[in-house]
Specification:
With 525 residues, the protein is α+β, with helices and mostly antiparallel strands. It contains eleven helices and 21 strands. Keywords: Hydrolase, Membrane, Protease, Transmembrane, Transmembrane helix.
């Protein structure tokens, strides 16, 4: 039978009743000190909020409940939702560890680190789960080097057309770019101008260049104008005999292609070797030439060139020349075709005996002397006056104390030309007959002087000759021929050749100190 416990009338257990439990002490009331109104306003709950997470009334629905969130999209569900297949032993599909997989098992025994669903590489090497990992101060965020992004590919480039008309750049930007370019260009121009002005002031202050004058025209009668007219009529003659070659000059004197030159220029081609002659014109044309006739006594020859419509030189008069007249020599010295030199007439009627080897005979000319530069190769070329008319044929130079015709030697300002008055008559005769006959006195003479009178003393008289017929004897001194004074043996030769064969001329003599005049009928040589 059970024992009834004593109770109090208010239903509480009576502690004095037999068999009742000891009385229980109630908790002491909490002593809540008064809160400061400022702290309550700063940290207390808002009015009307009864719990820590009570939503504001504005977030409640119309029925007083919390509003529901719309279901997530499929992409959000795949990214943040639970896995499709829950682990074994977790029918709710939660994120619980597999049964029996404790931390100790994962670290030491039970399931292997390779089977740990949270740490595939094993949790033993994770510093966050190893209590023995030392504490290392990490650098503040952002102080480390950013990982390299690798080379970026080049973007599309804009062409000028796309920039201006493709609406790829704003018009304001284009306008601003144009203004900047103009400003930079103007600034650069000003800087350059100031720099140039400053440099000019440093180098040549106040210097002003004078204005250049236009080129002057070459007046008629100038050397260049005369040469331009005469050069087309001058040819360069190239003579070849076997393996030997020489050159000279010539001048066209007839439209038929006749060229006047020196005998010593073409003599090698008419000798035993029978060489060839070629004429080279100023335009570069090269044609063969044949000898028409030659006169060794005056060192003149005429060749013919098969040329159509050649330029013919004008023929002047050497008898009108005066000492000091300007002359121009044109020829091919040392093979330099078309060479022009200038000078004056140094003397006229200068008897010059030519080199027998060069003239192929005992030639004596009554030369025009000039200081125009004449060199080997000028032989046969024209000597022209200021009008461009031919007044002589360049023939010889005097070098190293001897008269040389064609010999190697430089010009020293003593050149000699055959007067054109004599050369023209001889050239006409050579073209007509191929030979020339000269007057002959029939004596051999030498130059003499007694200190007061000069002359040509007769050494011997050719038997049966014109002088013997006229009564000239050995020892007579010839001092005059047809009124021309004779001062040397060479002057006697040229004075006689001025006349035609068969002509009667008076000859003045000095015999044993007495003057004597005889008339001689000149012979032919």
């Amino acid at each position: 039978m059970s024992e009834d416990r004593g109770t109090r009338p208010d239903g509480a257990a009576d502690p004095d009743a037999p068999g009742s439990a000891p009385p229980r002490l109630r908790p002491r009331p909490l002593d809540r000190p008064a809160t400061d109104p400022g702290e309550r306003a700063a940290f207390g709950r808002p009015d009307g909020v009864g719990s820590s997470f009570a939503p504001p009334s504005s977030h409640l629905g119309s029925n007083g409940s919390l509003p529901t969130v719309p279901p997530p999209t499929a992409a959000v569900a795949r990214a943040f939702g639970r896995p499709d297949r829950a682990p074994d032993g977790d029918p709710a599909g939660g994120l619980q560890r597999p049964p029996g997989a404790s931390g100790d098992a994962l670290r030491g025994g039970g399931q292997s680190a390779e089977q740990d669903p949270f740490w595939p590489g094993g949790s033993t090497g994770d510093p966050w789960r190893d209590p023995g990992t030392p504490v290392v101060a990490a650098p503040p965020p952002g102080d480390g080097d950013e990982p390299g992004e690798g080379p970026r590919p080049d973007g599309p480039r804009l062409s000028v057309r796309e920039v201006l008309f493709g609406k790829r750049v704003q018009p304001r930007a284009l306008a601003l770019l144009g203004v900047l370019a103009l400003v930079i260009g103007a600034a650069g121009g000003l800087v350059g101008h100031w720099t140039a002005a400053a440099a000019g002031a440093l180098t040549s202050p106040g210097a002003v260049l004078s204005a250049t004058e236009p080129a002057r025209e070459r007046p008629p009668g100038s050397v260049s104008e005369v040469a331009s007219r005469v050069l087309p009529a001058v040819v360069s003659l190239e003579v070849t005999v076997g393996n030997q070659a020489g050159n000279g000059s010539g001048v066209v004197i007839d439209p038929a292609g006749y060229v006047l030159t020196n005998d010593h220029v073409v003599a090698p081609a008419t000798g035993p070797g029978q060489g060839t002659i070629e004429a080279l014109f100023s335009d570069g044309s090269r044609l063969p030439a044949t000898v028409v006739g030659a006169d060794p006594m005056t060192d003149l020859a005429v060749v013919k060139v098969p040329v159509a419509n050649p330029t013919v030189a004008g023929i002047g008069r050497s008898g009108e020349l005066a000492v000091g007249d300007a002359v121009i020599a044109i020829g091919s010295p040392f093979g330099l075709a078309g060479t022009v030199t200038t000078g004056i007439v140094s003397a006229v009627d200068r008897p010059v005996r030519l080199d027998p080897e060069g003239s192929a005979g005992d030639a004596v000319i009554d030369a025009v002397q000039t200081d125009a530069a004449i060199n080997p190769g000028n032989s046969g070329g024209p000597l022209v006056d200021a009008t461009g008319a031919v007044v002589g044929i360049n023939t010889a130079i005097r070098s190293a104390g001897s008269a040389e015709s064609g010999a190697q030697g430089g010009s020293i300002g003593l050149g000699f030309a055959i007067p054109i008055d004599d050369a023209r008559a001889i050239a006409e005769e050579l073209i007509r007959t191929g030979r020339v006959a000269h007057a002959d006195l029939g004596v051999n003479a030498r130059s003499v002087t007694d200190g007061a009178t000069d002359g040509a003393q007769v050494q011997n008289v050719v038997a049966g000759g014109p002088a013997a017929a006229a009564g000239i004897a050995d020892g007579d001194v010839v001092v005059d021929v047809a009124g021309r004074p004779i001062a040397s043996a060479d002057e006697l030769v040229v004075a006689v050749r001025e006349h035609a064969p068969g002509e009667q001329v008076p000859v003045g003599l000095v015999r044993q100190g007495r003057p004597l005049t005889v008339t001689v009928t000149l012979g032919q040589r």
